């Protein structure tokens, strides 16, 4: 015989289930969000995540689940910037380094070389920005796998922090093929997009404890393991390594190397005259026969057996392997995505830094190597 409807409504099991459901809703809506936020240790350092969006910016910020007014106010964090150093001996002075890489393709050789750097990983934070393209998504998956593997190692072998941004601007090129990337017709739009990506990455990841910023391209696959210390030992505000590319020379049937990064240069009267005749939105480009500038390029200053510590003052720099004192960026030097004195991106950065009183330098005999597609 079926149970009358009135009895089913008053069944004790129905009341118990209803009470459990109500309790669950109460916990979800009215519990304090502080349970989801990290605690602060007695020495003032954050655990796992930041408790607010700015303290410190190198850690992820978790938004509270509730919008009620019961949220505890964020703590006040003091940073004594006068105590921050950028010295010739960054390891002895425990100076933190932020390695920033715009990444459209992932090369395992890049990551392996990054792990071969012998600067203490506890002093290194990593930052990546990846375009929202199919190729970018593939790169993201490969990068994430390597990060997960490395950050699962014992504490001394992990990086201090890793930040990955997905680029919020349209990619101007449909492919990252080397030939397509370097077409002169693509340069202004491509490098403007690169400048925006660099600025987004820089402004998001550089924190108040960052001493140095190392810009390292995603296709740099070979550097000395002492790259950071070597560049910092010159105590220059901006300093660039010389970028070459290894390849198999069919003429000699043997391994060889050739010049690659042409953006490290000393200006010329010809380039200045060309710029003076250009429209305000036109840019000068290096390495194209259609636009001979006759600048002195650092790649051609390399000397066989030359001193790797030899310095030259530069007017333009590339971003393949570029070490910058964080105070230069804090002073306002960024990567113009527009024609700045007819220069753009990294070369425009060198010009902007010079206008702010910071000089750029290069090491013609200190080599890093680019992936050969």
From TrEMBL:
Renumbered residue ranges of the record's region Disordered: 39-74
Keyword Transmembrane part of the UniProt annotation: yes
Bilayer-spanning residue ranges: 12-31
Top-level taxon in the UniProt lineage: Eukaryota
Alphabetized Gene3D superfamilies for the sequence: Spore Coat Polysaccharide Biosynthesis Protein SpsA, Chain A
Keywords: Glycosyltransferase, Golgi apparatus, Membrane, Signal-anchor, Transferase, Transmembrane, Transmembrane helix
GO molecular function: alpha-1,6-mannosyltransferase activity
GO cellular component terms given for this protein: mannan polymerase complex
Gene Ontology biological process terms from the UniProt entry: cell wall mannoprotein biosynthetic process; protein N-linked glycosylation
Subcellular location, record wording: Golgi apparatus membrane
Pfam family, one: Anp1
Membrane topology recorded in Swiss-Prot or TrEMBL: Single-pass type II membrane protein
Keyword Membrane included in the entry's annotation: yes
Biased amino acid composition, Polar residues: 43-55
Protein family per UniProt: Belongs to the ANP1/MMN9/VAN1 family.
Protein name: Alpha-1,6 mannosyltransferase subunit
Organism: Delitschia confertaspora ATCC 74209
